[in-house]
Amino acid sequence: MAAKKFDRSSLEQLLSKRFFYTPAFSIYGGVAGLYDYGPTGCALQANILNTWRNHFVLEEDMLELDCTIMTPAEVLKTSGHVEKFADWMCKDPKTGEIFRADHLVEGVLEGRLEGDKLARSEPIAAEAACPEGAKKKKEKKKKGAVVAVKLEDSVKAEYEHILAQIDNYSGPELGELMKKYDIKSPETGNDLTEPVEFNLMFESSIGPTGQLKGYLRPETAQGQFLNFKRLLEFNNDRMPFASAQIGKSFRNEISPRSGLLRVREFTMAEIEHYVDPLSKKHARFAEVKDQVVRLLPASVQLEGRTELSEITIGEAVEKKIVDNETLGYFLVRIYLFLTKIGINPERLRFRQHMSNEMAHYACDCWDAEIETSYGWIECVGCADRSAYDLTVHSVKTKEKLVVREALPEPRVIEKLQVEINKKVFGSKLKRGAKPVEEYLTALDEAAAQKLKDDMAANGGKINVTGTDGNEYEVTSEMVSVEKVTIKEHVREYTPNVIEPSFGIGRIMYSLMEHAYWTREGDEQRSVLSFPIGVAPFKCLVLPISNQAEFQKPLQNLTSNLRRLGISSKIDDSSASIGRRYARNDELGTPYAITVDFQTVADGTVTLRERDTTKQIREKVEVILELVNQLVAEKITWEQVLEKHQVFVQQEVAN
Amino acid sequence: MAAKKFDRSSLEQLLSKRFFYTPAFSIYGGVAGLYDYGPTGCALQANILNTWRNHFVLEEDMLELDCTIMTPAEVLKTSGHVEKFADWMCKDPKTGEIFRADHLVEGVLEGRLEGDKLARSEPIAAEAACPEGAKKKKEKKKKGAVVAVKLEDSVKAEYEHILAQIDNYSGPELGELMKKYDIKSPETGNDLTEPVEFNLMFESSIGPTGQLKGYLRPETAQGQFLNFKRLLEFNNDRMPFASAQIGKSFRNEISPRSGLLRVREFTMAEIEHYVDPLSKKHARFAEVKDQVVRLLPASVQLEGRTELSEITIGEAVEKKIVDNETLGYFLVRIYLFLTKIGINPERLRFRQHMSNEMAHYACDCWDAEIETSYGWIECVGCADRSAYDLTVHSVKTKEKLVVREALPEPRVIEKLQVEINKKVFGSKLKRGAKPVEEYLTALDEAAAQKLKDDMAANGGKINVTGTDGNEYEVTSEMVSVEKVTIKEHVREYTPNVIEPSFGIGRIMYSLMEHAYWTREGDEQRSVLSFPIGVAPFKCLVLPISNQAEFQKPLQNLTSNLRRLGISSKIDDSSASIGRRYARNDELGTPYAITVDFQTVADGTVTLRERDTTKQIREKVEVILELVNQLVAEKITWEQVLEKHQVFVQQEVAN
Q1: Is B527 inside any structural domain?
Q2: What is the CATH number of the domain that holds B347?
Q3: I need a labelling partner for B316 at 20 to 30 A (CA). Which of A299, B352, B474, B495 fits?
Q4: pLDDT tens profile B276-294
């Protein structure tokens, strides 16, 4: 319902006027993709993060970290980000303008489909189908995109099929699509260059010599992986467990657009949940298994379709639509978090990544996508990173990043082992003894077998390369390869990682769209219906007019609210009471307490609720206690109205 | 007292073992000046920031912002940081090693004074005077610094005089000191290069073309200044008011040392309080005026002395030791914040900056310095930035960053004004009309007078340069300069800014030193006595041993604590109860609830307090309510002990 009536430009005006956010450096002309949060946005964000911390970190005893943003290049080379964390861009060589290739193809094809729709229908019907009506069409026309041209039915179907899997194309494939469908620079009509990769990390250098290259982290995850050993120790070596981190990350987007949805600097909240790869069961799965979720699996998308399956998570895991219990558990926890802060569950889905769009470190990934006026937006990723990160860092640094678990009973195994005859070995190889021993002890089963075979075939001798890179001759006098029986008391494994990763700015913007509506019959009166837990301010305090005698009860009220830990705001400006209530509704403040002449006479005040605009009138002490319980979510406004008579406020001209 | 017995390496071991913090990227060999906070450090930091937000932002209705870290170069050129935000460095040209010049001079002279002390005293006395005893000496000897050489009395006095004002030397002056006192590269003895400036900002570039240069912000202040106009609007145009911001800032330190005290990436909390330059009085000054503070004014330091004056802030402002009420008010608020979170007031002083050490934007500055084993450390700066920042940004962007205040009654002033005869002006100058008008209307009083005089002297005509850079002839027919009487209804001014700026990492480290002690008679038992408000965990929950029957009461306890919003931690490891209490003391957790066999029998548990190690035993419900009130700081442990009998725990071997 909200979606139908939604007017984005009105919302944006409201958000700017009430200082939720603003383009950063605007007095300097601004920089695309950088935004500042004002007092309201900042409070909303803090409340969302606080809810997140309670819902995830405290509820499940996660180990929270605060790691650095500046990261040496070596770490991100190992993690694969230097090579693979890139988007495809192409350039209009005549103007120098740069486009992100997938967004360009998507925009042009969408524009052509819109033009087709126009051509196929009456003008009026076309306008009704387009939520922003005439205005949007005009904007598009400026860019020369929407022209009423009917497409062949087969072409239309092709476009729709491509768009359903737009995230699945590689750069060269996007280049082919651009050729095949004659996609040019939208404003100039110039030919574009072939897509080339552009790494999305901001680069810098650390220290005064300029020799240590660094990047701003593109995710908060790496700092958590690098601390795995200490985290496991801190957790008394128990598995499974999770670490978590809230902080800024950076992506040097090619051409940021869509406001808060695609920015160059953003707050993330990430969880790395470490599990035994042999069992991804979750101890609390039973608590969530009956929750219904809306899923869009990869297989459906690859068929060019977008219908959602509504299914309990229990069934989804049983049918292997969702791979395992831990992944399923987190999908539900994500669902519960998003709906708790006010996301409309009807406009929330989980979409599985297709193989080509998956990040280089992931083996499976489900995105929580929220529907906004920009379409379905990825707001939370929930990836199975397998043992990828811990393995690559461990190989690179030679630091063991593993779990060691005592086996319930020892395991007896037979295994080929290289035995070294120390005395002969040392005296023959001298300085070479150490590098050769290092080489030999690192051999796995198959390599040891090969060494044995080669040595036998070669008359009991063989040349090997030591860890110092030099070649040495090894003889059967020095070394033998024997089958030995080993009793293992400990199992050693690299944990797999399930990673729910939250883009806080995207969630916040989507929430603002979902919370926004206008009162019937009065287009000017916009409301942001945030749940009380995340609303920037819980309570407005205002005098009905500017009389000096209201000052004392006002101060009393605010100091009492502060004592109760309830964030409030005074509005004693000279605007009419109606205008100030309206302003309050635009800030999303759920309650307003008004001091008037009767307050001075009998110590009562009125309490107004934002969504119903209904009011009650009681003694100050009673109202304070009610507000306290409403904020703590111990009672609801409906319950308050059952017990207290609705009061009809007489507005006083000022 | 704590200072005397303090053993830094034991504290550092504890902080590492309990994962308060750790060098970042340590499995990659680490990067100097970058640290990660573990779960305990992260919780401690979050609690400090939460206290800060309540103490400053909520208490005084400050407008909190969250601005971007990435900042275009133009902004930081205007603010002066590109030119002036630098330290002096010199280089050992043979080894390539780089030193920060002031730290080098300071270190060498301190080393020589220490050598002198050694030479003047008996070895045993010398050791007692050096808090870390033999170990420290040995370390220093490795670097070849401390050699027992007696200095002449006059040289010793010179060194002490220099060290008292070490922050006041420019680069060339440091170069002269190095020559005069023969200061070389400490380890190699090589000559060093002359000090050169090194800018401390991390550089990067924004966007795919690489053409937009950016820096990571060196302070959170600039984002606040750039939003001044919106902030003032949001505050209904009322003055004075403050904005605030908590966030990461970056300084590419030349050679970071001293652990958390000098790092390259750090969390700051900054307040920008905007005041009328004509009145820096503060409405709540009366509330703080009797607070005694310990001050070290610039004049005292310039005499080479370091004695503190203990004085009420009221008297300090009256005597102009502290410039104005607003500055004085914030010094006390800073004092109250720091002591609330656990900083020892005996080891806290306010030191005024000397003119050369002041940041380029400041006209006065007092640092809150905390005494640690590294000496007195600047932890909070409280600067008067005057109208510097708002003025430079306004001049650069032509955006007015001013306050407009209705005057109580209009002010009549006479003023020279350039009057343009539009008709003649336009027809004569044509395309030049606009640039010439822009030039003329921007003239100030003196320039207008000069124009009038020059035109009269020149027969009624004159050449001027328009804003387009071209020259035009202007005649008295087109332009006249007249004295006019103007009635001003509005006063327009650029506010001054008082800026309390908190280095959270430094405060946290100092707090950990102040909170640290070891129990009498048992050197192994270290304690971190954090106030309950900032302690990472409020309550430990533990079973006396590993019996299965303790599981249920344990779970009951933790879920009840969670419901009360009290952050707790379970320790059901197999270590003895004594060891687990000791571990708890090292985490700084104020209380521990223990489940034992009697719990199963009669529903009672014990409650142990960290600092006294005393315990009481009561029913679970009673203990939970006590803990709840202790955490809310409604009662003290002393009050609990008055009402409840001390219980003597029988330790059970495991």
Answers
A1: no
A2: 3.30.930.10
A3: B495
A4: 999 999 999 999 999 999 9
